[in-house]
Write a structure and sequence with these properties.
Length: 96
């Protein structure tokens, strides 16, 4: 499996407003709001790279890796015992 780079990270935050201020004022990220309660932050051509999830705890929630190809992703997931399954485009859209 050829991991190209970290694609995105989701973080749980007890203080999403404080993170929003830090991300935009200090790091210079662009805020991407959604109607799901999450707040995303953009730093390049991707829709969002950091997603903040309001939570009762702070810490990492999920991570997305970019692989060399879709075939590599399918092979890695299958070998880990979690073969990919088809999903709707609206559900997949909540992950970007």
């Amino acid at each position: 499996m050829d991991i190209q780079q970290l694609g995105y990270t989701g973080l749980n935050s007890t203080g999403p407003a404080a993170f929003r201020s830090y991300a935009t004022d200090v790091l210079g990220l662009a805020e991407v709001r959604s109607d799901t309660g999450r707040t995303g932050f953009r730093m390049d051509s991707f829709e969002q790279r950091i997603i903040i999830e309001p939570s009762d705890v702070d810490g990492g929630a999920y991570y997305g890796w970019q692989l060399g190809s879709g075939d590599e992703l399918r092979a890695a997931a299958t070998s880990a015992g979690s073969p990919p399954a088809a999903t709707s485009s609206s559900r997949a859209g909540t992950r970007t």
